[in-house]
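Project outcomes to date are best conveyed with an example. Our students and postdoctoral researchers have been running inverse folding experiments weekly, and each run begins with a structure described purely in tokens. The record below, which covers 486 residues, was selected by the lab manager from last quarter's runs and is presented without edits.
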């Protein structure tokens, strides 16, 4: 959908600028389109009210993750206090929209779990690395888990503090190590012995000591998709459990390194507590052995990986999970250790939706296709992991029409370009749909395949919409390219 103007929100503001009723403004305030009070809702930033929830359930069988921050009010799908169709009219489609309150609520669950403890939550920014999202977490006191020099630059640009950054990843280059050491990051999570030696040499050349933690691979099956399992023997991540003590001894012999902790991450979209509890015991066994060898570990970093509800999944709540994990840590006598965690998906996944317009309905011999303007380049998870995203109409009235089973597909020239298979929808060309649970591993994995510009992104805080990323056009994509000069 091309953005229409003038609209409810007026002409397009600059990136990151709050914009209400056509006027840029410096502070968040209520706009004329606020909906909450007229229906007895809970106001800016608050959850949807009871009637909204029951309205949502009236839409039928379709599961709706993201509530209470994404839900129907009087038949119109809202994110916080704003109707999504108005944002689509203003900014065009495909459009990613995020709820700030949802992100802070997800973070709050971890903060409750760690109340009274010496702990640092490092947002794994690979899940969603847009500057406006990073800014929300930086302002909320988060540290960051990064995996590249580019991510380092993003965090610093968004106001993150270098000393709260941990640097993970199996293939850090010398120049990335140099940049991270120069910035003064808090810890390198080293993933191999070879990397340890290169880091020591880089730090020595800079006359610095690098703070290190070694990522151990506990060989625990997280029971998730094979592409997002990371803690099994066959995975490329971390060092083998049985090699860890020897590698710690080697690290301790290198003067340019300062050992600060131990790290582990077993996978992503984990919905069962058992693999976490098993991995924790394995890591604590290593802590016993490493400290018995005279090497003191100031922190234990337990990675991320907690799953979210995409399609009725029921992962443990972050605070409940951490109460159980902390009980294990305390029982083993490590209550004095600082705890670090690296959650990504669970902080942002259900805070975001992608709004897309139905372009064409195409009846087929075996299937009906609903062709939308979002595609695998915007939402890569279905093509990559056969992942499920709920797809719902922006107006409940759409659901009063007769439903038909459709494969929801994008315009990209690949048969793998699908967003949902066999979805019961009552749609017509021009209707708007929301792809739910689109806050994590969507925009950060988006590409320009088929020379499609990446979508715009809006962050909603109550009744205020902030454009945090402008839609990319072809000129943006060709910048940096050159014709052959003869
Ligand atoms: C080292 C590390 N930490 C944290 C994460 C974040 O995981 P999640 O988004 O599942 O919480 C990942 C993701 O794979 C990772 O590899």
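After processing, the design step wrote out the following sequence:
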């Amino acid at each position: 959908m091309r953005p229409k103007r003038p609209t409810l929100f007026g002409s397009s503001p600059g990136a990151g600028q709050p914009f209400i009723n056509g006027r840029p403004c410096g502070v968040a305030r209520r706009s004329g389109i606020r909906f909450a009070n007229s229906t007895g809702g809970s106001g800016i930033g608050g959850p949807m009210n009871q009637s909204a929830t029951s309205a949502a359930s009236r839409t039928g069988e379709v599961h709706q993750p993201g509530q209470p921050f994404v839900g129907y009010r009087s038949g119109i799908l809202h994110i916080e206090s704003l109707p999504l169709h108005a944002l689509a009219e203003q900014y065009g489609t495909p459009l990613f929209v995020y709820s700030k309150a949802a992100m802070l609520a997800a973070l709050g669950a971890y903060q409750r779990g760690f109340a009274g403890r010496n702990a640092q939550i490092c947002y794994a920014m690979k899940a969603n690395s847009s500057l406006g999202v990073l800014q929300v977490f930086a302002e909320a006191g988060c540290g960051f888990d990064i995996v590249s020099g580019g991510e380092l630059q993003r965090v610093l640009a968004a106001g993150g503090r270098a000393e709260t950054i941990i640097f993970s990843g199996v293939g850090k280059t010398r120049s990335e190590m140099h940049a991270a050491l120069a910035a003064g990051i808090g810890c390198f999570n080293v993933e191999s012995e070879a990397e340890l030696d290169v880091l020591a040499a880089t730090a020595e050349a800079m006359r610095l000591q690098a703070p290190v933690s070694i990522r151990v691979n506990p060989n625990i099956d997280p029971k998730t998709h094979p592409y997002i399992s990371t803690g099994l023997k066959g995975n490329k991540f971390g060092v083998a459990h049985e090699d860890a003590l020897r590698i710690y001894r080697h690290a301790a012999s290198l003067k340019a390194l300062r050992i600060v902790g131990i790290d582990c991450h077993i996978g992503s979209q984990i919905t069962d507590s058992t693999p976490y509890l098993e991995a924790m015991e394995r890591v604590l066994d290593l802590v016993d052995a490493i400290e018995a060898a005279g090497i003191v570990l100031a922190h234990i970093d337990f990675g991320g990986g907690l799953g979210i509800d995409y399609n009725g999944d029921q992962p443990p709540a972050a605070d409940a999970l951490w109460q159980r994990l902390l009980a294990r840590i305390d029982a083993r006598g490590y209550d004095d250790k600082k705890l670090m965690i690296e959650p990504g998906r669970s902080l942002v996944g259900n805070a975001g939706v992608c709004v897309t317009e139905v372009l064409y309905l195409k009846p087929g011999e075996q299937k009906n296709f609903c062709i939308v303007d979002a595609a695998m380049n915007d939402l890569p998870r279905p093509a990559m992991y056969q992942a499920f995203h709920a797809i719902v109409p922006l107006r409940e009235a759409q659901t009063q029409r007769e439903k038909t089973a459709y494969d929801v597909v994008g315009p990209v020239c690949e048969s793998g370009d699908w967003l949902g298979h066999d979805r019961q929808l009552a749609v017509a060309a021009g209707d708007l749909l929301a792809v739910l649970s689109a806050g994590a591993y969507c925009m950060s994995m988006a590409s320009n395949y088929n020379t499609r510009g990446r979508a715009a992104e809006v962050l909603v805080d109550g009744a205020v919409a902030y454009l945090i990323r402008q839609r990319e056009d072809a000129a943006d994509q060709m910048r940096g390219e050159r014709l052959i000069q003869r």
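The longest strand covers residues 352-363. Residues 5-60 have pLDDT under 50 and may be disordered. The training component of this project remains on track.
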